[in-house]
Amino acid sequence: MRRVSLFGHAAHGFIQYLSYSSAKICNSGLADSDPEPLKQKTGSYTLRATLYVLHILLNYGAELKDILEPALSTVPLSPWQEVTPQLFARLSSHPEQVVRKQLEGLLMMLAKQSPWSIVYPTLVDVNAYEEKPSEELQHLLGCLSELYPRLIQDVQLVINELGNVTVLWEELWLSTLQDLHTDVMRRINVLKEEAARIAENVTLSQSEKNKINAAKYSAMMAPIVVALERRLSSTSRKPETPHEVWFHEEYKDWLKSAIIAFKTPPASTTALGDAWRSFDSVAASLASYQRKSSISLREVAPQLALLSSSDVPMPGLEKQDTVSESDRGLSANLQGIVTIASFSEEVAIISTKTKPKKLVILGSDGQKYTYLLKGREDLRLDARIMQLLQAINGFLHSSVATHSHFLGIRYYSVTPISGRAGLIQWVGNVISIYSVFKSWQNRVQLAQLSAVGGGNSKGSVPPAVPRPSDMFYGKIIPALKEKGIRRVISRRDWPHEVKRKVLMDLMKETPRQLLYQELWCASEGFKSFSSKQKRFSGSVAAMSMVGHILGLGDRHLDNILMDFCSGDMVHIDYNVCFDKGQRLKIPEIVPFRLTQTIEAALGMTGIEGTFRSNCESVIGVLRKNKDILLMLLEVFVWDPLVEWTRGDFHDDAAIGGEERKGMELAVSLSLFASRVQEIRVPLQEHHDLLLSTLPAVESALERFADVLNQYELASTLFYRADQERSNLILHETTAKAIVSDATINSEKIRALFEIQAREFAQAKALVAEKSQEAATWMEQHGRILDALRSNLLQEINAFLELSSMQENLSLTSAVLVAGVPLTIVPEPTQAQCYDIDREVAQLVSELDDGISSATAALEVYSLALQRILPLNYITTSAVHGWSHILQLSVSALSSDILSLARRQGSELITKVHGDNFDSIKHSHDDLCLRVEKYSLEIEKLEEECAELVHSIGLET
């Protein structure tokens, strides 16, 4: 509820703005005195506020009825005139009756004070209903008819008469015959193939063949006949104009007889080609007549030709001043309203596919207004697009960033008069770009003829200028043949490189500066040319961006006009919109048209510089006002176009949708029945043969049933046997796997046993070796202990007495003993000998001291042993125990002996680790280090002695 109340406050603010701004415009005369940008900006703001109020009304009108209903009555009518398409779109389709009544109230105010602004859409919507129109439309039409009866009468007359002029009867018939021609030829070819196949059937008589061919012809041509009869019915009503009388006199009987002849099956196959010939003659006659470029209005709409000083508002100028209460009874032309005074006598026929008509209307102001009367299209699309372009143009002119850059869009008025016709304002002083291109082609052709001398021949008709399609196919077909591709394949499958090459060749043949030169030649000087070029760049940029946003397609050169007086580019025909071009047989994938001639006319910078800046500015303005654009486009959601809901039908004679599917189904069923009739004889033969063979088939089926039962029993037994066989195979596979695993395990165990046997032999040998080492150790230690106990230290001491050997170690004594006098020995050598003798004496003395210390230690050690060690130390030592354990382990290998040896070993290990083993080991290591030190010193002395002897010489 709070959200709804906020929308109510917003609507109140917008309505106050509309009231104040309109009052200010009326009081100050803003429309006449203030500059254009200010008027455009005010108009944009007014449109924005009006659309927001309408948006709130459509979405929350029921909840805000008490707030909106009194407030809407204070809004002036001019803002509502700008959004009449949105009001009519929801007048009959809104689900809430409260909102419909509020919309009806707004339109009622317009009907009372500004009837010209709503008279056209009111009558168009009322005429669109096949039955009774909605209640709101009836009230609105009743109000207009009561207050302005002559206005309604005149406008209805103009709408009806213009409807007759839009598409003439000969145009309807020519279009119908041209559309049906291809389909008829295809069906005739199918019938010829069927007739040829039937002719080969020898089981049918000639009368039966003719009957079948006639039935197939009637079935195949049924949709064509329905379309022709509907067209004949639509043009067989009582003629209302001299032109319709002429058509009846010229073609009615001819068409009736042609239809009757076409409905009658041809007598033979060769006559199938003549079935459509009468309509070809009619089409040729109609095409010859339609080469006329104009027709008299008295012939096609005599009441329009007689119309004078009507109250019909001029199309495109119906949004004018309001009517006061006192002037409501006066005629419209007395209040300054431009109305239709009369129509021009001649109606020009434009030579395009839809044959639009060019009308010149004289206004009540004395001016002539030109319009294009176009049919076979829902021009509500163009009218709504024009409303959108008008709003965008206001945004561009009111924006500071775009107003000074000549950015604008040329638009024109579009007034629908029915769901399939409307009046389009004729844009003056413009020429299509295709006309510019064609003029260049004519100039080139004349120059070529003059160059070869052909231009001087009198009476000779120059060859026709090739059309763009002829130029394209003249290049694409040879290019496809070079690639080995036939033209008959789908255009989608043409190679991309071939199409690109043809496009580049065609671009080279067309001058890039074509539009640039036309702009230059249409300018008085460089200043004028520069101004036109800027306007051209601005209009191209604006329409390119807007066209891209709208998904605008069908931008061929006839739909793009140039105003060389101002430089503006004008786009027409907005029928292919909202990316409809991407769904065509040959899809349009470019966002907008920007070919080389357009790009060259943009100036030196091309698509960069000014053009790019303009495009960015336009996109910025569109983004800034996207909410307004979306609200304007919502009208297509509320009130879809005719072709979006019922298909693209031009008239009542067209067949489409479900009706076409039903007809095709009926044709298929008829052809099927004819096919059955065609093969009736073979079918009867097969039927008789089937009846004769049924008894044999029955007995065969009984035998087959017995065999089938036996087969099912055998299949059951076989299935069981197969199941048992599968189980046995599974068990066999399992057993083989178990045996394989056992074999592998046995091999592994055997290998492991061999490894353990080798390791056991090695362990046994190692135990024997260690046992022998232990025995040797006990023997050696026993001898040493015996020696220590038997006082052998004195003998050892006497043996190691070194002082008596000092003489023998002296070098000087050795020289004298050798009988060599010392006088012949050099003094340095003698001094060296003395030094060595002195060092040797010192070393001997130290060695003596060491030996004495060792002897003393041994004596102390001997006394300690005698006091500490028992006599049975060897037999009670750990080594003796290990020797006994090892010998026991080697001698017997039984488990009991090994267990005993393991237990004794564990006890011995526990006993040894319990003693102070680490201190004993440390003392032993210290003693070993000292012995090693003395040994190294003796070796050093021996080396020095050897060196000295070598220096003296062996002979000396």
UniProtKB/TrEMBL annotation:
CDD domains: PIKKc_SMG1 (cd05170). Keywords: Coiled coil, Kinase, Transferase. This is Non-specific serine/threonine protein kinase. GO terms for biological process: nuclear-transcribed mRNA catabolic process, nonsense-mediated decay. One of its GO terms (molecular function) is protein serine/threonine kinase activity. Residues 924-951 form a coiled coil. Residues 343-684 form the PI3K/PI4K catalytic domain. Residues 1-128 form the FAT domain. GO terms for cellular component: nucleus.
